Amino acid sequence: SCHSYTHGSLRNMLTLLDPYRLLSSISVNQLFLLPSKSFEALFPWARNAFCTGTLLISYMLWRRILKLEKRIAHQKRYHKPDLIILMRHGESEANVNPEKYASVGDPNIQLTKEGVQQAVQATGILRKIIGKRPVFSFSSPYVRTRQTASIVLSELSKSNVKVLYNHEDPRIREREFSGSFQRNAPDRSDEDSYSRFFWRPPGGESCADVYDRISLFIDSLWRVFQCQHDVENGVVLIVSHGLAVRLFAMRWLHWSPETFMLSKNLPNCGFIVLEKQRPMGHGSDYYKLSDDSVRLLGISSVESESHPSTWPLPLHNDSVESRTFCF
Fold this sequence. Notes:
Elements: H1 2-17, H2 28-31, H3 37-42, H4 46-76, E1 83-88, H5 93-96, H6 100-103, H7 113-130, E2 135-139, H8 143-158, E3 163-168, H9 191-194, H10 207-227, E4 235-240, H11 242-253, H12 257-262, E5 271-277, E6 286-289, H13 291-297, E7 305-308, E8 325-326
Parallel strand pairs: 1-4, 2-3, 2-4, 7-8
Antiparallel strand pairs: 1-5, 5-6, 6-7
Helix pairs in contact: 1-4, 7-8, 10-11
């Protein structure tokens, strides 16, 4: 009959062309209304025409659904870079003369000549690590980080490294101690006894405050991973400040406040590298600090990884609290 011909042909087509059999459970008579017997008696030729038309429309519908599902799946996929490099700015005027905080203001402090040279030298090392991968750059809008990023990206471009994305984000700026010119140093006598992570100077930010805005920045970074396809197997370069770099690592690797307080600030134009790791067996990709980065931060190798949350974890394991996850 017309129904068996159309339905059988459509199922054969779905079996051959669609490995997931998206529509194999949907019968054609649920999608289209078959002609009545009186209509067939008047127009006997309509039987084959209707069968052919039904088959073609069903096929077109299947193709449309398949394209939509592929588009949705592609949009949900994260394009993770091979490397995430976190770099501190070069030597600044305030690193040499702290009075610059009071006279110039923290956002306007520039690099010294030594700081410029440090940025050039650091680029030579970065070039070997980056190789031919494309670069996606993020930097703090403070003058010293803007200058450092400009030098690094310019030197990389001279070596034919493609810089596909360059963005300044105020959420990765330096910690604010007063919100204005720092004419008077804050009294930090009770910082250690209270908690260096939670202690907040009057009118300024605690490390926890900076952690919060770094977390918001990371949320935006994941959206870049979702929409920028070229970031796949590329390099994300973040040029920021000593404290902000450590707090990024804390958030990404899920350190405790105690682990953060054990870590050390990077030297000027020092950088740490998070390397993408392939899962063993099942689970998603995750990131691990390079050995040099672990030594530079002064932490143990236990805190160098972020394990995927998709890995199964036995509830009875006593070491559950010591493991870190990437949410």
